[in-house]
Model the fold of this input.
Amino acid sequence: MLVASFSQAEEPVCRLRGDPESPQLSKDGDIMLGAIFSFHTSWKERRDTYMHKPLPLECISLDFREFQTAQAMLFTIEEINSSTDMLPGISLGYKMYDSCGSIARSVRVSLALANGNDIVSAPSEAPCTRPAQVQAIIGETSSSPSMGISTVIGPFNIPLISHFASCACLSDKTKYPSFLRTMPSDYYQMTALAQLVKHFGWTWVGAITTNDDYGNNGIATFRETAQQLGICLEYSVPFFRTDPPEKIQKTIDIIKASTSKVIFALLSHMDMDVLIHELSRHNLTGYQWVGSESWIFDSQTAELDTHHILDGAIGLSVPKTHVSGMREFILDVKSLNSSSNEMFTEFWETLFSCKFKQSESSAENQRECTGHEDLTGVHNSFTDMSLMPIFNNVYKGVYAVAHALHSILGCNETCNNKVQLDPFTILQRIKKVHFKTKEGDEVIFNEDGDPAAKYEIINWQPRENDVVDFVTVGLYDASLPAEKQLNLHNKTLIWAKNSTQVPVSVCSEKCPPGTRKVLQKGKPVCCYDCIRCAEGEISNITDSVTCVRCQPEFWSNERRDACVKKEAEFLSYEEIMGALLTAASLFGTCMTVVVAFIFFRHRKTPIVRANNSELSFLLLFSLTLCFLCSLTFIGRPSEWSCMLRHTAFGIIFVLCISCVLGKTIVVLMAFRATLPGSNVMKWFGPAQQRLSVLAFTLIQVLICILWLTINPPFPFKNLLLYKDRIILECNLGSAVGFWAVLGYIGLLAALCFILAFLARKLPDNFNEAKFITFSMLIFCAVWLTFIPAYVSSPGKFSVAVEIFAILASSFGLLICIFIPKCYIILLKPENNTKKNMMGKAAPKSF
Done:
C-alpha cells in the first residue's frame, strides 16, 4: 500500500508500507505485462504470535507445470517482440510473481503489480496517483486466487486474463469486471459432465470436490444439472490437500461405506495427487472415476496412480493442440541458468536432482550441479508436454493483449508510442478482439469474458509398463444444438478394473413396464421401489412414475404393460348354462307340440270337448310361443332382439294368461248355468271368449307399443358390473314400461288365480279349476320370486333368471292343466266318457 509522507524539509513522496515484493522473473520493455503463477503448490505452516512482525510466506513444493506455463508466456512475448507485424517498434516486458497457491499472497502480489515498489513524488493536486505498473495481468491458474486478484484490481480496470480458472462464478461482471479467460466456464463443463454421466446410465454418484470456489461453485452447477437429468448424489465431500489426517480419513470412510460405483472428482491436480496417495494406502480400487479438466489429462497424476485407482477414468479436457516452436522453447533451460534468482536455483536443483553448493545439511550422496546439465534423458513433469492445451491458452491470452495494443497504438508499419495507455482502454479493446492464431485457433470473448466451450472426452486406457493413454473418445461442443452437443466416437472404452463393460451405478434397478416408481421415504429420488400397477392400469415404459388407467372398454393384461380389449360377456348358446336353458326351452316346445298332437288326435273325446277345446288349442299355441320366446334372451344382444325379447314375452304371456282366464271363467259360468233359471252362458259363449282373449291381449300390445315408442329397450355395454369384462345386456329403456308389462301380466294372473280358487270345489268331474289354481299358484310364486332374484343377479345371470321364470311358469301351466288330461286320454281311456265327465262326485277338500 502506498501512503503519502510529508515534512517541511522534504518534498512529499509516496512510499510503500510493508515489505516490497520482488518478481520471480522480470524483463523491461516499452509496455509491461504482469503474470501470477503458482511456482510452488504449498507453504510452510507457522503460528504467528503477533508479538513480532510476521515473516514472509515460505513457499515449498516446487511445481514444474507452472514453470512450463511461465515458459509458454515468455515464448509468446518473444514471438510478439520478434514479429514485424504485431507491435513493430514496441517491446513487451514482463513481471512474474509466485503466489504459492495462496489467495492472500495472490492479492498481495497483484497489488505489487498495480503499484510497483518505487518511491514516487506526490504532487499536491493529485497525491500518490500514477499509471499502473502493468497494462494487463496473465494468471492465475486456479479460480479462488483469480477471484481474489480480480476483486482487488477490478476497480482499477486492469485486465486479468486467466488460462485455467474455470469457475462459472467468474463470469459475473458485476463482481469481476476486468476478468477474462481463455478457458471455458465450468458452467458448460459441469453441464457436459452431467450429460456424460446420464449417457452411461449412472444415476447414483458420489462426488469429491476441492474445498474452494472452483469446487464449491462447480458442484453446485453439476448438482443442478444432474437433478434435471434424474441423477442423484449419494454424497458430496469437500476435500483440500492441507486437510488434517482425521478429515481425510473421514472422506475415505465415506467412500468405503457408499453403494455408488461412480465417483465424480472435481479436484485441482494438486488435491487429486494427495487423494490418490490416500486411496492407494487403503487400496480402494474398482470405482469408476469421472474427472474435470483440471486432472483428467494430467500425466503426473497418472504416474502417481501406481495402484491403478483411476484406470478407466473418463472426463473432459481442453482440446489438444500444437503451437509450433513452443515445446522446444520450454525445454530450452540453458537460459535459466544465467538467472541469479534463488527460485531458479531451486528449480535447477530440483530438475536435475543436484546441489550447486554442498552444505553440511545436504545429503552426502547428492551430486553437485555444474550448471551445464543436459535435459536429455530427464523424464519428469517438466519434460511432459501433455498440458500443451493450457500453454496454448496462455499463448492466446498474451496475443489477445497484443492485438488490443495493436489496435490502440494504430500499428501499421510502426506503432504510435506517443499514445497514452490506460488499462481501461486496453480492457475494452481486449473484449472486442477477434482473431485466429497461427495454428488456426479462433480467439473471441463473449459478453462475460468467456471463450466458446469445446471439450474432448478423455478415457484413461492403461497399457503395458504402467503407462496410461489419454484416448479421445468423443467431443462436446456447447455451440451446437442441445441434442448434438455430446458426441461419442465409435471407440472401445476401458472402464474400472480394465473392463470393457459399462459399470452400473444406480440406487435402485430400473422399474420394468407394468410397474411404477414409489420413492423410498427419506431418500433421494433415485432410490425407489417398483410397485406393480393396479388392475386396469398399465405402464408401458421403463421407470414410469405413474400408471395410466385403461379406457373403459379395455383392461390391463397380466403383465400390466398393455391395455387389451375387455372380453364381452353375454348368455350364449355355447356355454353350459345357455345350452341347458336352450335344451329346456326346446324340450318344453316339443312337449307342448306333443300335447297339442294328442289333443288334436282325441279332439272329439269328451275330456277334450268338455274343456273348451278352442281355448285349449289357443293356450297350447301360446305356451309353444312362451317356450320359444325364451330363446330370444340367449345370444348377443342387438336392437331387434332387445325389443323383441321383452315385448314378445309380455304379449305371449298375456295371451297365455288370457286363455287360462277364459277357461276359468267358462268353468264358473258353466256351473252357474246348471243352476235352475240361469242363462248366464249366453253372455259368455265362444264369441265372448274369443273377444275377451283378444281384448286382454290388445291391452298388452298397446302397452308394448307405448313402451317401444317412448323409450324402447336397447343393447347396452355394462362397464361397471365387472372390472375386467364387459357385460352385454339389454337396457330396459323405460323401466316404467317394463314393470307395466310385468304388472299387467301379474294382474291377470292374480285375477285368474282368485277365480280358479273360488271354483276349485265345484262338484263336476270335468271341473279343471283346481288344476288352474295349482298352475296359477306356481305361476305367481315363480314371478314373485323372480323380482328380487332378477334385481340382485349380476350380468348374464339376470337374463338366465328371466328365462328360468318364463320356462318354469310355462311348464307349470302345461303340466298342471294338460298333463292330467293326457294321463286320462292315454292311460285311463275308460274314464274318457261323457257319462264320467257329467257324473257328480263328492267334492274333495283342497
Notes: The chain has five domains: 2-46+55-183+324-333+387-443, 186-317+452-498, 336-374, 515-565, 576-835. The first helix runs from residue 64 to 81.
